[in-house]
Amino acid sequence: MLFARSPESKKKSQKFISVEVVAPIVVGIFALVLWDIFVRVTQLPPYILPSPLLVLQTLITDWSELFPSLLITLQITVIAFIAAAISGLLIAILFTQSKWIERSLFPYAVILQTTPIVAIAPLIILWLKNNTFAALVVCAWIVAFFPVVSNTTLGLKSVDPNLLNLFQLYKASRWQTLIYLRLPSAMPYFLGGLKISGGLALIGAVVAEFVAGTGGEKSGIAYRILISSYNLQIPRMFAALLLTTGLGVLIFAALSALSDFILSKWHDSSINHD
Amino acid sequence: MSNHPVIKLNQVSKVYSNGTVALQELNLVIPESQFVSLVGASGCGKSTVLRLIAGLGSVSSGTIDWGITTAQRKLAFVFQDAALMPWATVRENVYLPLKLVGMSPQHSHILVQQALKLVGLEKFVNSYPRELSGGMKMRVSIARALVTQPNILLMDEPFGALDEITRSKLNSDLVDLWLQHRWTVVFVTHNIYEAVYLSHRVLVMGTSPGRVVADINIDVPFPRGEDFRTSSLYNEYCREVSQHLATAMRCGDMVGF
Question: Domain B1-74+151-257: what homologous superfamily?
């Protein structure tokens, strides 16, 4: 009895060793083993396809250069993501205040989203020539903001009509209806938009860095990928790619955890159905 | 119960933008503290009547007059769907009408507790709607309606989505609450048995267009217990309402009241 665990701690440790966590790890290990066997059997040179062990070794030896670059890309990603989240939310609120505003401006949001960032990134970098960092943030923002706008607008409009009637019956103001009804109703949609936007902010940052080609101390991970590719340092390129994808997974996991935390008490998407 | 009319619909018509005539020249007088049920098939306009009284829509012609001043008029509405905010606790849901008029949580605490006690849910203040059964959610919805201490209660098929046992229990509870508070109630239902058990008056509505085709007084005093529900008088009233309903559905319109 002294060492008996409480039901809550049993549940937490069960979550960490649950199928959802173990299954992808097993698949990943299996894929790595296959990759290693393939390289050994085919005897492919490292500049074509390095083995996973070589990639890991390179990651360790080049850590002092790769990790700071990753942090720079992370900074750009985080700032662009926060800007996308705030601006996306505000734009969505604006759209739901007036059908005419939405009809007038929504097509331009779509145009901005569908324009290839590689085409407009050089222009943005040129316009903001004194501040390459800001230019990269703007590029990443352009890629990241649309899912937040689109999802949140849908959420703000997808309010229970009976609840809307109830607010009307009690003569709630527009502001009260927005704060106490529309915004909470839209939360699952907003958080869904954030999950997509997080990954897109990273992609936007990486693509913008490719275009900018900035070197030196303040170069991001995308620059390291590019230069490694040019110099045929393929194991290093893979190591940099590994860091980038790892960052993407972390961002998604963090946003999923945030979504679960906020919605866990009431939304079907986050409830643990026993 | 006085005869003083609280709500008066005069030749009220409602035509929707797609041309559907929901109501045509409907006349209806509801005295103070009377429990009136509107019974009819789907599409007869009974919910439209309720929504027009609540101000959730405007009449196309005719007028709705009130026998009380705007200040005296305290309306509450209960929907068929409990319409609870899923992200809020029971306490927060019941507190909502008071919050919208600017009452602080501290001042509203006693009113919320009282309203929950009326429906027997005072122990569930911190529960979320997803943790409640259908009947409990409806009780929370009723508590929310009662927290503002209304004098007019509008109920649109509130028990329609519930099983028979839960519905029967809530009917008895509603009668007990009415006896305590004597609200003026307009209750929409498609269930004849429920209408006869709860009401002083049952109005049968016909479809296409919606209008009152029969006005039946249920001349049985309150309180009405289970013995009324199993009495021959109850069966007679149910049969009478049912016959009028069948006629209304067969013929469409009758010359109305």
Answer: P-loop containing nucleotide triphosphate hydrolases (3.40.50.300)
